[in-house]
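Table 4 source record.
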Amino acid sequence: MPLAVYVLGLSVFALGTSEFMLSGLLQAVAEDMDVSIPQAGLLISAFAIGMVVGAPLLAVATLRLPRKTTLVALITVFGLSQIAGALAPSYGILFASRVVSALACAGFWAVGAAVAIAMVPADSRARALAVMIGGLSIANVLGVPAGAFLGEHLGWRSAFWAVGAASAIALAGVVTRIPHLPLPETKPRLRRELAIYRDRQVLLSITVTALAAGGVFCAFSYLAPLLTDVSGLGGSWVSGVLALFGVGALIGTVIGGRVADAHLSGVLLTGITASTAFLVALALFASVPAATVSLAFLLGVSAFFTAPALNARMFDVAGAAPTLAGATTTAAFNLGNTGGPWLGGTVIDAGLGYASPAWAGAAMTLLALATAAVALRLTRTKKSRVVTGAQAAPSNRRTYDHQG
């Protein structure tokens, strides 16, 4: 695996830390900015929506630019937006800095994924993408808890300064280690790139990714009240269990990345099935503390075991437009990360309790499993038709020659 791929993973560590660290800083931000906690929570929603919109938008805007130049520009803008957030004198400026961060983050994810697969053989794509996703896993294990620690002891702005410093290190890595990839001989055309959205398999892949991610994060987003109000654990357990989820995510990413290249379909179906089973078990045994803690870890494993395969699958079905493929996967994951928590909050507001998001999440992953099965079946049917046609042509030709 080229060192440049690990540099991209380091960059994603900074991006992921910024994306998720506000969950541990909301109260401090709300007090300092004199806004309510729900208003402060909009900073998280703004980032997620910016990722959904920004990924395809930035992919299209930078389609004909050199890849390395684009990555340098995006990580620079991202780092500067962290500094702007650290210095923000008002909520409005902080909100704007989060939107700019999200756009730069989304663009970097999309272009970075295309660069990663361009630097490795086709049979190592999932492993390369797993390195990038691993940066996100480590962000959950180390970056987010570190941000919460800094926020508690040095103020919430210190967390933004820390991410800014991490972005500077990532920038140095991109400048020195990412090679200059030659532009394709035929310049990319927007109309041809956008044609992937007319492909049924691309639309199915988007659906599977959004549902699989959304199902897990539907339950994960409300894990804290589940632990304290249903499982009966103290508040001090929350950060540890969240970190345990991150450890599981890292393990799942490593295993999934190594297996998915050879067994992509198997990883997809096995991973989503496991997530569904763990979510059902979480809903049934939420009142048992040991079960809840164990299942949080296992959910991290299953969700991120599946992630490299979901990414690789998109590049397989949208290979004619690799940059938009990366952008589309990023947008699909963030659709799930936005829709899942919304659904979880809806069922809680309906009075169904803090275990209900696990049931709702299981319903989402079950739909993802059914959609994945349909997509893979259609792929096999198409391949069998191609093989049958290829076999028939020589057979007919031999008959003609014999008769002649």
